[in-house]
Amino acid sequence: MKDTSLYQQILGDTSPWHVAAVRLDAAAQTVEIEMALNGDELWGCPECGRKMRGHGSDRRKWRHLDSCQFKTFLVADVPRVICPDHGARTVKVPWSEPRGRFTALFERFAIDVLQACSTKQAAGLLRISWDEADGIKQRAVRRGLARRADEPVRRLCVDEKAVGRGQDYVTVVSSLDAGRARVLHMGDGRKRETLDVFWLGLGAERQEGVEAVAMDMWQPFWDSTVTHVPQGVEKIVHDPYHLATYMNKAVDQVRRSEHAALAYRQDDTLKGSRMLWLYGEENVPSKWVIRFRKLIENTRLKTAKAWAVKELWRDFWKSPDEDAAAATFKEWYREAMATRLEPVKKVARMFKAHLRNILTYFRLRISNGPAEAINSRISELVLQSCGYRNRERFKNDVFFYLGGLELYPAQ
C-alpha cells in the first residue's frame, strides 16, 4: 500500500481534498501530508454558503495526531473566494475549524489530555507550547458556551468564592440540571450588580423557567434574585450548609469567651476542645468520646448549652414537611433564646428574620452542597496553577474544567 493510500484511510473522508504526497523527515521526526484538489471545485462562502469559484489560495499548515511517534502535519493551499456580500474569505476545510492551527482530531485528543492534568504537563505530553495548549482551552470554552446559549436553567446555586488577598471575591452561579453541578457564570465581586449580569443575560423566558435558587443569606444576592426572577421570593432557599456554619461559629464564640474566663481561674476544662464542638455526638472520634461526654454533661458549661442548641438545629432538617418544620423552628427558637448566650441568640434572631426562605427547603429540596464542592475544585485549580495573575484566564479554566461544556470541535 502506498503512503498516500495509507494516510488517506487514516484521515477518512476529506472530500473534495485527497492526499497527494507524504513527506518524511527522519532528522526532524516529522511527517508532512500534502492535501490537494482536482481544481474544478465550486466553493461556498463560509458566511452565507453562496457557491462560487476560488480566487487564489493561502498556504496553511495544521498539526495532526502523531503517527509512529513522529509529529504529523497536514499542509494545503486553501482557496479563497470573493463573496459579493462578505468580501474575501478563506474556504472551510473538513479537518479543522476556521483559522485553526490544529486538526479537529488533534484538538479533541488535546482537550482530553488537558482535562486530565495541568496545562504545563499537557503541553509537554502533546509536544506543543504552553500558549498553544492554553489557546486550545480558550477555543474549547468559547465553543462550549456558544452551544449552551439557549439552554434552559431550572435549579441553581449562587455562592461567592474568595480568590485573592483581602476581600477579593468572585460570584459563582452553578446549575444542578444535568445531574451534577456545573458552572454557568462567574462575575467579579459579590455585589448585587454582579448577579444582575447573570439574570439579565438569561432573558425573560429563561428567568421564568427558574424553579429554585439555593444561596446563603447575603442580601445583595437575595435582592438581585427577587428583582429578576418571577416569584423569586418563593424560589429562594437559604442553604442548610451555610446555616450550620453560622451555628458552628456561634458555638465557637461562646467557647472562646468561656475558655478565657476559665483560664483566668486556672481551669483548663475547655483547653484543646475547639474541634470537638464541631462534631455531632455520633461522629466524635473514639479517642475523644469519654472526654467529650464529660464536657457535654457538664451543666455548668455555657459551651455545652450552645452545642446542645446546635444539635437541635440539626434535628430541624429532619422535619418531614414545611408545616412540621415551622413548628419545630418555634421550639428551637425558644430553646436558643433561653440559653441567654448572645452569640446563639444573635444567630436565632437572624434565622427567624429569614425563616420564610429557610422553610422553602422542605418544598424545593435544594442546597448549596454541590456549589461548595465546586468551590473546593476551584481552590485546587488555583493551587495547581500557583495562582492566577490574569482573572480572565482563571475564569476560562473554571469553565473548561467545571463548566460541563461540550468542548470538542465538530468533525
Question: Overview of this structure, please?
Answer:
By secondary structure, the chain is of the alpha/beta class. It has 3 domains: 99 residues, no CATH class; 119 residues, 2-Layer Sandwich (Nucleotidyltransferase, domain 5); 125 residues. Helix content is 46%, strand content 19%. It is built from 16 helices and 12 strands. Strands 1, 2, 5, 6 and 7 form a 5-stranded mixed beta sheet that branches. A 5-stranded mixed beta sheet has the order 10-9-8-11-12, sandwiched between helices. The chain is elongated. The mean pLDDT is 90.
Summarize the structure.
46% of the residues lie in helices and 19% in strands.
> Runs with pLDDT <50, length 5+?
none
**What count of structural domains?**
3
Q: What Rg is obtained from the alpha carbons, in whole angstroms?
A: 30 Å
> Which structural class do the helices and strands define?
alpha/beta
Largest sheet: 5 strands, mixed
Strand content: 15-25%
Oligomer: single chain
- Overall form: elongated
The SSE string, one letter per element, is HEEEEEEEHHHEEEHHEHEHHHHHHHHH
Helix content: 40-55%
Total helical segments: 16
N- to C-terminal separation? 26 Å
Please give the number of β-strands.
12
Question: What does the average pLDDT come to?
Answer: 90
Keywords:
alpha/beta; Nucleotidyltransferase, domain 5; five-stranded mixed beta sheet
Task: Describe the secondary-structure layout.
Blueprint: H1 3-11, E1 18-25, E2 30-36, E3 43-44, E4 51-52, E5 57-67, E6 70-83, E7 87-90, H2 104-116, H3 119-126, H4 130-147, E8 155-162, E9 169-175, E10 182-188, H5 192-202, H6 204-208, E11 212-215, H7 219-228, E12 236-238, H8 240-264, H9 289-296, H10 302-316, H11 322-338, H12 342-353, H13 355-359, H14 361-364, H15 369-384, H16 391-402
Parallel strand pairs: 2-6, 8-11, 11-12
Antiparallel strand pairs: 1-2, 3-4, 5-6, 6-7, 8-9, 9-10
